[in-house]
Each structure stands twice: as C-alpha cells, then as structure tokens.
C-alpha cells in the first residue's frame, strides 16, 4: 500500500489503499489547499522526477533539499558532530542515494523538527537511520502518521547532544522550536530557526502566524521569542531554505528585527 504525500505541504500520511479525503495540515489557516484542489503523490512517483541535493553551509553542516523544488521547498540541515549527527527539520523526499550518502556522512542519531509544516516524511527518515524524532508535545495533534519513533518532549528546552539544544519559542505554532548549536560558526554559535524566526530577503528576520496567508504574529508572542533567545550566543541564523541564511551578525539582526516588527504592528508608518 502506498503512503500518500500531499503535494502542497509535503506531509506524508500512513499507508493506505486510497488517498486520504483531505490534508489536515493544508486545511488549517496556516497553510492552504492548492487552487487546483487537493492532490497527492508518493515517494515512488517522486523518484521519477526528483532527487536530493547536498550543500555544505559551514564545516560540519550540510543542507539537504529536493530538486526541483517540492511542496514548501524547505531544506533540511545535517549537523555533524563527534557525538553523532542531528537532522534539523525534514523533507518529503528520500531515496536510496540519499540514504547511502547520509550513512557515509555518519548517519543520523536524532531528528528534530521546528514545527508541523516540516514533519514531511519524517517517519521514512527515522526508519532509514534508526533515529528518534524529537517533536514538541504542544504540536502532538499535527502528527498525521503516528509512529513509535516519535518522542514528544515537554517544557522549554531539550538537550540532544553536547552543545546541541532545542528551545521552545512558540509563535507560529505552540510548540515552535529552534535549535542552538554552540560549536557552530567555529565556536561563535549558530541558530537553526525554521519558520519560527523567519530569515527575510534583507537578512533580517520576521515572524508570522501564517506565512502563505499573511496573518501576522501578535506582539507578546514575538517578545517571548526574543526573550527565549536573548541568553544564547550565535552568529549565523540558518533559516528554512537554501538562501535564507544570515551568515554573520545574526544576534544583532534578531534584536533589530524584533524592535522593527513590534513598531510596525503598533502604529501607522510615518512615511
Ligand atoms: Zn497538505
């Protein structure tokens, strides 16, 4: 039986004879049903038209994304360390070449995902590498393919490996999570932000409840994100796509961006 994947959000559902009636992720206001209507694919079908590409962002950090772009088109990050590798966020497509390459890079010890839009084919990735998947318990209801490999963590922080820690920021989703890599950027620290802290075109950041539907995030949620990240040291911010990266000065960009955002939603512009 196939495991159907939504072509709009990239979420994979449990094995079934017929495609699901609808995609629960896309029917919710933070996503959308494609204008042409709900449609589905499978890993087997995608293998005819797509492949995964790899790109080193800095020593010990390799991006993995699907070509041509599929669904939301995020790329995952493979963080490599002596204590094990972490896959941050996830993508829908995985094939034999991907498994072979990632195994030779040291495999995957743990998978952690920022929010439900990137749950994608996480169960396939987990099974391929025997890796548990760390998801914040506040987003438990959005797991559409339940599996024993999913570990729901609670509270505000979760250490994955030495120097690799998850922080719950909330915001876009109640369990919205970022990853802090203390050894990133040669010891300055790096922030993996998913869509929770969104890297913009001007290499600053912003925050939304719904990105495709342009629904802004409230001020208290943005301030909470700023408060959670204030104690952390980091230089680059790695956003969710290949080109959404603040390569240096991320800490100052975040501080500036929070003030810019809060001002923008609290008063009319002067120009
Ligand atoms: Zn969907």
Describe this structure as you would to a colleague.
The chain has 271 residues and is of the alpha+beta class. The mean pLDDT is 97. The protein has a seven-stranded mixed β-sheet, with helices on one face. β6 and β7 form a beta hairpin. It contains six helices and 20 strands. The longest helix has 15 residues. The structure holds zinc ion. Zinc ion (ZN) binds next to loops.
Question: How would you sum up this structure in a few lines?
Answer:
This protein is an alpha+beta fold. It has helices spanning 43-46, 96-104, 122-129, 184-187, 219-229, 250-264; strands at 3-6, 12-15, 40-41, 51-58, 61-67, 76-81, 84-88, 110-112, 133-136, 150-153, 157-161, 164-168, 177-181, 190-194, 198-199, 205-206, 208-210, 215-216, 237-239, 245-246. The chain is globular, with a radius of gyration of 18 Å.
Question: What labels would you give this structure?
Answer:
271 residues; alpha+beta; seven-stranded mixed sheet; six-stranded mixed sheet; 20 strands; binds zinc ion
Q: Which series of helices and strands comes N to C?
A: EEEHEEEEHEHEEEEEHEEEEEHEEH
Q: What is the typical, i.e. mean, pLDDT?
A: 97
Major sheet characteristics: 7 strands, mixed
Low-confidence runs of at least 5 consecutive residues: none
**What is the general shape?**
globular
Based on DSSP secondary structure assignment, what is the total number of beta strands?
20
Distance between the termini: 58 Å
Cofactors, ions and other ligands in the entry: zinc ion
How are strands sequenced across the largest beta sheet?
4-5-6-7-8-9-10
Strand proportion: 25-35%
